[in-house]
Specification:
- The protein has one domain (2-26, 38-72).
- It has 2 helices and 4 strands; from the N terminus they run H-E-E-E-E-H.
- The chain is 39% helix and 16% strand.
- The protein has 75 residues and is α+β, with helices and mostly antiparallel strands.
């Protein structure tokens, strides 16, 4: 009976030893994607296209996608 318990203990230790590196390695972990950056979007007052606020031309609280659309709208 003592040898059976000793054999089970050895098997348990070997099983834990073999499974521990695989569970802790970075290769097996799923990479969590970074959260995307949120960018405010606006609508061109002339043609209705959506574009980032950083690329829009702002005139009198209206946004335009290009200088030509700004001129066409008379702003």
């Amino acid at each position: 009976m003592r040898y059976l318990l000793l054999a089970l203990l050895v098997l348990y230790v070997v099983w834990r030893w073999r499974s521990a590196p695989a569970a802790g390695s970075k290769a097996t972990r799923a990479a969590t994607p970074a959260a995307p950056e949120v960018i405010d979007m606006v609508v061109c007052a002339h043609c209705g296209v959506h574009l980032p606020v950083t690329q829009a031309l702002a005139v009198q609280a209206r946004y335009f996608c290009s200088r030509a659309h700004q001129d066409a709208a008379g702003a």
